[in-house]
Amino acid sequence: MDCAQLKDLIETAWPGLAHCRFDAAGRVNEVKCERSALAELCSRLFHEWGFGFAGLVVEEGAEAWHLRYVFYGERDAGWAHVLTEAPLADRIFPSIAVGSKIFAADWHEREAEDLFGVHFAGHPRLGDFVLHDDAWQENVEPMRRGFDAAAAMHNRLPDADWRPRRVVRESGAFVMPVGPKFSGVTESVHFQLETVGEDVIRSWTRLFYKWRAVEKLAESKSPDGALLLAERFAATTAFAHGLAFCQAVEAIGGASVPPRARLLRVFLAELERLRQHAGAIQEICESTALVVANSQAGLLEEDLLRVSGELTGHRYLFGMLAPGGLLGDLPTEACRKAFRDAKDAVSGLDDLERRLTVSSSFLDRIEEVGIIWLKTARAYSLVGPVARASGLARDLRRAQPYSGYESFEFDVPVEEEGDGYARLRVLFAEARQSLRIMEQAAAALKGGDVYEPVNLRAGATLGWAEAPRGATFHWVRLDDGGRIARYRIVTPSFANWHSFHLGAEKFAFQDFPIILSTFDLSAAENDR
Amino acid sequence: MSQWVVKGIRTGIKTTAYPREAESASGVTPGLPVGADLGAQAAALTERCPTHALEQTDGRISVDYRRCVHCFRCARGAARPLAWQPGYEWAGSHGESGLRDGFGGAFRRSIHIIVVDAGDCGACLNEVKQLNNPYYNMHRLGFFITPTPRHADVLLVVGPVTDHMRVALKKVYDAMPTPKRVVAAGACALSGGVFAESFVCAKGVGEVLPVDVEVPGNPPPPLAILHGLLVAVGRRPPVALVSGPSGPRR
Question: Which listed CATH number (1.20.58.100, 1.10.645.10, 2.30.30.100, 1.10.10.10) goes with A214-527?
Fold first, then answer.
């Protein structure tokens, strides 16, 4: 379907429903509905019309709560935003996670409840999500306007003996708590594994140990100041997040980024994807203790970090982006050299893949292990290589192109099995495609500016990018002074962490770290 | 499986000669800005730094490396930019009396390090991870990572220390036997970085634990972290964490 057909479908099914905005060029259908119609409308979009769920944006207005449910379809169908609101004093909304069985909305509702105090009727598990129960008293709503950081912190007494709830009651059941500090060099996250024998019956993930309240910190900052946060909250994919943020600010200001900047942005975004994928491949090799493969992958990741550092001055590409283009130009010849170096690295990755494909003891650890079925990927609206390895062929560079991606030739690799090996194959295949895009971008470079100042004015819109771990959505609202009024970040790790336990359960606990490595999840990206 | 043995041997030796010699490969470090005398333009340039790492007195700019977040706004787009120096030996010793006594002897060439992520963005941790790749191979220096605080001599912390990680971080430190040292790596761990104003972050590890060695950078590259570990065991002298136009000073 296309966005005009969607408009007709909505108007037919709900005559009288207010269409606040229909943007044919941007392919956006924006409708406002009463709370009572929310569950059914979202259900039709998600289940019947096959849209993915990007996220829930909660905004506290002067007199009302404004909730925005963002759905995205294939290219022509575009975006569907469902708005609903309620007076500030009456903050109960229906849960679409439960009521419409849109599991993908589950964590969005839990986060909104913790941070804003908005309640979702019917949701069985609100609380102890972003705000850990052992560290926060009740009824602290830090994202609200009236929140006083000094007052809230004064009363908090972290409970050092807190334990998560135990669920499995079979004979021989054993609880294995893992983290937040565990293993060698890992991000802080807690898993409670409940095993009977060696099989993990239940895996429960506790995140937000690394919650830095970036969305709150961004408020009242200038876009230039908030960009520093966008780059640094999940810096292994700093460029992708910075790009999504800049594109939102540019769209609000009606700016057009110069062509040379668009090409360089694509070049750098793909270089980042290539380097992050090499790192993910290294983690998988390390998890299976295939030592030489681990070393080989480690060499390639470091090579790509050095290529990034040599080209831009920073191994993680900090300091390149600005709203309106790039902070500085890159010489075309330097880009072409970076491409040649990246090509050597990809040859190394291809060689590594060939060797891994004939290493049966390695394949035994990841084949038919950690399976995520296609129906799970849909229900949780998974993104990135994890989704594509399960047959859910969504990629924003194809579905909702930005920065000129529509004029590049590349494939989007998809696998069907949804196991660790399928995810590994997708990583290797995407690395080759990233190189292909980099070659086209470098060849197309012509002279010209890389920066055009943006007219900062009031407005709000969604920015997005296909980050290395998957789709990322950045909702930005600027006030009359051009400063951030609301910054909502939905990351690929937030979507994908939600499903991780389904991959870990029913496998042996020895498989747990290997399964985890095949998902390439980031706690920093989830927690913000 | 012999293909792996052959592949490994054919790859040869990739390891850096550091610390025996300086590493000159490109892309191993982002460098750091150098303080300078910029006269009338100093005030405007100082304003560009988002974390107040730059201070100026009568036109002379000094740089507090603990606060530098590598945004490059003092170098890019500035009317009169600061020069940046390459290099990676950035680690300084915290406190007035330098390193606490008693961490010499056998520890110089053999330590076990426990790494705690106190809320980092992923980049610092990723640079720590590179220390075990063949280019850096920290095992050759006698540095090993251990998952248990009971075996650890050095606690390497990244991140500003989020409120949710305070208890776990303290538990790790308290469980380590003496002698022990704390190395804080990265702008967040030294000053809170861009999260310094967050109501759920400390302004660095120093608010929670006694810190012996501080490694600037956002993130510090692997060679800077290696330098920090060498400083912690006394194999390298600490350097100043603040640079002024007339040379390094505390």
Answer: 1.10.645.10
Sketch the domain layout of chain A as residue ranges. 3-148, 214-527
**Gap from A392 CA to chain B (nearest CA, Å):** 27
What pLDDT was estimated at residue A15? 81
Mean pLDDT value of segment A383-403 = 97
DSSP secondary structure letters along A86-133:
EETT--EEE-HHHHS--GGGHHHHHHHHHHH--EEET-S--SSSSS-T
Q: Tell me which of A163, A181, A216 to substitute to probe the interface with B (most B C-beta atoms closer than 10 Å).
A: A181
Per-residue pLDDT at B120: 97
Q: Is B128 on the interface with A (CB under 8 A)?
A: yes
**DSSP characters over B93-141:** E-STT-SPTT--GGGGG-EEEEEEESS--SHHHHHHHHTTSTTT-GGGG
Q: pLDDT class for A434, splitting at 50, 70, 90?
A: very high
**Mean pLDDT value across residues A27-38:** 90
- Interface-testing mutation among B126, B131, B146, B172, with chain A (most A C-beta atoms within 10 A): B126
B97–chain A nearest CA distance, Å? 31
Of A150-154, A170-174, B156-160, the least confident: A150-154
Note the CATH architecture for domain A3-148. Answer: 2-Layer Sandwich (3.30)
Are B122 and A522 within 8 A, CB to CB? yes
Neighbours of A389 (CB within 10 A): 30
- CB distance from B34 to chain A under 8 Å? no
Low-confidence ranges of chain B (pLDDT < 70): 1, 94-102, 245-250
Residues of chain A contacting B26 with CB distance shorter than 8 Å: 306, 309-310
Q: What's the mean pLDDT when you consider all of chain B?
A: 91
Query: CB-side exposure of B104: number of CA atoms within 13 Å?
Result: 7
Q: Which of B27, B50, B172 sits opposite A308 (nearest CB)?
A: B27
Cβ distance of B145 and A185 shorter than 8 Å: yes
How many Å lie between the alpha carbon of A506 and the closest alpha carbon of chain B? Answer: 26
A155, pLDDT greater than 60: no
Q: Which of A3-12, A210-219, B63-72 has the lowest mean pLDDT?
A: A3-12
* Contact with chain A for residue B78, Cβ under 8 A: no
Confidence of residue A4 (pLDDT cuts 50, 70, 90): confident
Rounded-to-integer distance, Cα A66 and Cα A488, Å: 13
In the DSSP assignment, the letter for residue A496 is: H
Q: Which domains does chain B have, with CATH numbers?
A: 32-87 (3.30.70.20), 92-238 (3.40.50.12280)
- Helix (H) or strand (E) holding A495, with range, is helix A492-504
Using CB atoms, pick whichever of A228, A298, A527 lies closest to residue B71.
A228
